[in-house]
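Troubleshooting: if your tokenizer reports a length mismatch, compare your output against this known-good record of 134 residues.
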Amino acid sequence: MTHETQPTREEHVPTAQESAHTHTHTLDGYTVVELHGELDLCSAPAVREQLDAATSTAGARVIVDLRPAHFLDCTTLALICRARRRALHTGGTIGLICTHPWHLQLLQATGLNTILRPAATVEEAIAREPHDED
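Known-good structure output:
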């Protein structure tokens, strides 16, 4: 039995080191990096690799989705800040999706909520990004 699939707006982009802690796909021209589970020093290499891959091209448009994360520490926050610097340095953008109250509290306590401006959904994160005027 053959199943034909319809094209969708979402496309999974596999990478060399995708792990239990990361999943990357594209949506409407944005690279969405989902971070899963407990994110700490042990998961940092996989997270760093995915964020580096997402921000490796000039003008990269990236969204980091923390909704699947159960726990994150300062190592993860530092990697997100590093990815933001990399994206901005080459004219790209980075958005953050974060809805967990503890994660939002951590962002607020560190002052990163004003820099990373967490959104509740992918659509909200995309709407917050600057768009080229035609």
